């Protein structure tokens, strides 16, 4: 698949990713945006994302992102949804539905069929950024596009150590660094560096954590009071669940943070002993075998009890 062949002679193009965008979502959306700006210099191209976490603001073009989900385009000639199905794109879903050409590129097993007219879905891929490079002409890709795509690959593979990392992943990453950006500094910035606020929140999450199920599972919750205390956003909590997972003897980490009065975002990580994608799907979430997420409503103790019961069931099989 070559993306410009699918888009054709479009004059208006929309791009969107999932709510609470992570590195792969931002990287793929911005990489695609920068690429299409080169292929279609006279076209109107809009990117819709809920926010751009500060850590990814170095990517060129992020200042152009539409976070209000408002547009004067009645029907986009083409609309691309990346790193999710259309149901998790917030206000962009209606733009996608009304577009003439609807393209969905994703690597989540929970979206195995895709939600577009044209679907490029490969659950075995390390990231959507890896897939995006595969649908682009390498001769058109430049330093900024490569940098955006590398960002998503680094964050979604845990600097190439997660099980989703394949020979192809490393080959694509190797090709991207030939475009000339400082990949070592990029890795430090997007994966290892934390603000003081983020370090404090991580420390609180570790201090408040509990080991359960004979030490095989670690659980922690950040409530809205703590979020307010640190004036924190959801993006400030990125990476906490992975850090919890590094606890010796732990096979599965469950981290929740409060979104509103009775709504919580749950992140799950596993070493393979628990298929967290299946656990998440039980409650309307999704993801990968070793990394998944859920948004649930209700009392946090009830929510945790239900999810932990599913995790325990998975462990015992």
Automatic annotation (TrEMBL):
Residues 13-153 form the DDH domain. Residues 215-312 form the DHHA1 domain. This is Phosphoesterase RecJ domain-containing protein. Pfam families: DHH, DHHA1. SUPFAM superfamilies: DHH phosphoesterases. It comes from the Bacteria. GO terms for molecular function: nucleic acid binding.
């Amino acid at each position: 698949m070559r993306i410009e062949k699918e888009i054709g002679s479009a004059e208006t193009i929309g791009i969107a990713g999932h709510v609470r965008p992570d590195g792969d979502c931002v990287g793929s959306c911005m990489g695609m945006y920068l690429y299409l700006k080169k292929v279609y210099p006279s076209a109107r191209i809009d990117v819709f994302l809920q926010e751009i976490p500060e850590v990814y603001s170095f990517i060129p073009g992020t200042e152009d992102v539409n976070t209000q989900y408002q547009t004067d385009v009645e029907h986009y000639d083409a609309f691309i949804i990346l790193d999710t199905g259309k149901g998790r794109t917030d206000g962009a879903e209606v733009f996608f539905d009304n577009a003439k050409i609807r393209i969905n590129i994703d690597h989540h097993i929970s979206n195995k069929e895709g939600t577009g007219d044209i679907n490029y879905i490969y659950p075995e891929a390390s990231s959507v950024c890896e897939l995006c490079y595969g649908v682009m002409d390498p001769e058109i890709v430049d330093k900024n596009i490569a940098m955006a795509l590398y960002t998503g690959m680094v964050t979604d593979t845990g600097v190439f150590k997660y099980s989703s990392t394949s020979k192809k992943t490393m080959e694509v990453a190797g090709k991207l660094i030939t475009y000339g950006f400082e990949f070592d500094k990029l890795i430090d910035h997007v994966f290892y560096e934390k603000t003081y606020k983020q370090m404090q929140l991580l420390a609180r999450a570790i201090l408040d954590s509990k080991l359960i199920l004979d030490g095989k599972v670690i659980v922690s919750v950040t409530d809205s009071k703590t979020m307010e205390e640190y004036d924190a956003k959801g993006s400030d909590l990125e990476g906490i669940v992975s850090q919890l997972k590094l606890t010796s003897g732990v096979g599965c980490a469950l981290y929740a943070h409060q979104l509103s009065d009775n709504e919580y975002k749950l992140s799950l990580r596993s070493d393979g002993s628990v298929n967290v994608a299946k656990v998440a799907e039980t409650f309307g979430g999704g993801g990968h075998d070793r990394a998944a997420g859920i948004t649930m409503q209700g009392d946090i103790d009830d929510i945790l009890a239900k999810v932990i019961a599913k995790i325990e069931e998975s462990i015992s099989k």
